[in-house]
Amino acid sequence: MFKIQTLNKIDPDGLRLFPLNNYEIASEIPNPDAIVLRSFKMHDMELPSSLKAVARAGAGVNNIPVEKCTEKGIVVFNTPGANANGVKELVIAGLLLSSRDIIDGAAWVKTLADKGDEIPASIEQGKKNFGGQEIKGKTLAVIGLGAIGVLVANAAQTLGMNVIGYDPYMKVQQALKLSNQVTWVEGIQPILAQADYVTLNIPLTPETEGYINKEKFNMMKDGVRLLNFARGGLVNRSDLKEAIAAGKVSRYVTDFPNEETLNMDKVIAIPHLGASTKESETNCAVMAVNQLKDFIEDGNIKNSVNFPEAFMERNDGARILIGNKNIPNMVSQISSALASEGLNIDNMLNKKRDNIAYNIIDVTRSKIDEQLISKLKSIEGVFMVRIIQK
Ligand SMILES: NC(=O)C1=CN([C@@H]2O[C@H](COP(=O)(O)OP(=O)(O)OC[C@H]3O[C@@H](n4cnc5c(N)ncnc54)[C@H](O)[C@@H]3O)[C@@H](O)[C@H]2O)C=CC1
Ligand SMILES: O=C(O)CCC(=O)C(=O)O
């Protein structure tokens, strides 16, 4: 029986893919084999020694101690692109909310509820206070052309915006999806200088923390509208406050408000709703669960943020999974250890990512003595060993 701990509410259409005869799923469960979560912050959590994998039903992994997981041989997955359409639609809503005074206007019109027959005339009289501008013909800078950024760029372009994009690390598969009407800009200064609207669609990492700061605000046009559906920590709050007070930023739309931004003028705050649609929640849960099952049952890895991609068809024998430092002479030491137990390697995959390597080894024997685990773990550089018996 595999034990799965859920740290957030996970869409049932995903969870039901775990066959109940083989999996136990609960929000509190001792010695879990794997964790599935959304935005729960794991940084202060003790990682149980039983834990083999963490699956983020979503894109951002800044709530997971990825480095610590890697050291402990815990594979961390996310679900690239699975909620991108949900976020794209909210970013488009954010573009419109920042352009038309829909929120204030809708709140004001409610105050007329007891005015009876005077309501139509009051509306016509008062609506001048809630005017706006159209997005057509305006320039939108998309910072980060990943799953969400590309969808936002393409959609905004079809709404008549002049769309420019910036992403020094853009993947080929994303480039192929980007409309040829979107202009690629090489530097951050030239893209910010042209934009009437800026949307942030990059991950929060130690490198991007406080990415939008005084220096970047100074590169922007006066009255720019800034949309942040990525993470609150990307924007330096005190610099934002100054930029709003100086009229540099005319609207800040954020899916990640906090005490400071909620108390700032010109801020449109949304309670992290980017991926809160049935479609996105199901897509993320289904992808997370399928990836997790494939890893737990067969050791295959797809869409991990810390381990290499690895897939090997199984034979009729047992499977050995080994994580080790990416240093010379590991494969030969591992092979010798297996040979010393009389095990015959039938098939083997060795994949590398940065400073780690991951091996899937199928042997001809269907049952292996579990003491092989400690033998393999005693090899210097090996940090994870698992045996999947047939
Ligand atoms: N509001 C919400 O509910 C959601 C928010 N997000 C946030 O949006 C972020 C992006 O999501 P996806 O597009 O799915 O991820 P992704 O990984 O497909 O795209 C991120 C892109 O940002 C680029 N990038 C990284 N650093 C950059 C930099 N310094 N300058 C310019 N580009 C940079 C990468 O090359 C990549 O193309 C996530 O990391 C997450 O924080 C994601 C999903 C839902
Ligand atoms: O699961 C959620 O609602 C959060 C989605 C998100 O922020 C992400 O996927 O990075």
TrEMBL record:
Pathway: Amino-acid biosynthesis; L-serine biosynthesis; L-serine from 3-phospho-D-glycerate: step 1/3. It comes from the Bacteria. Keywords: NAD, Oxidoreductase. The keyword Nucleotide-binding does not apply. Residues 319-390 form the ACT domain. GO terms for molecular function: NAD binding; phosphoglycerate dehydrogenase activity. This is D-3-phosphoglycerate dehydrogenase.
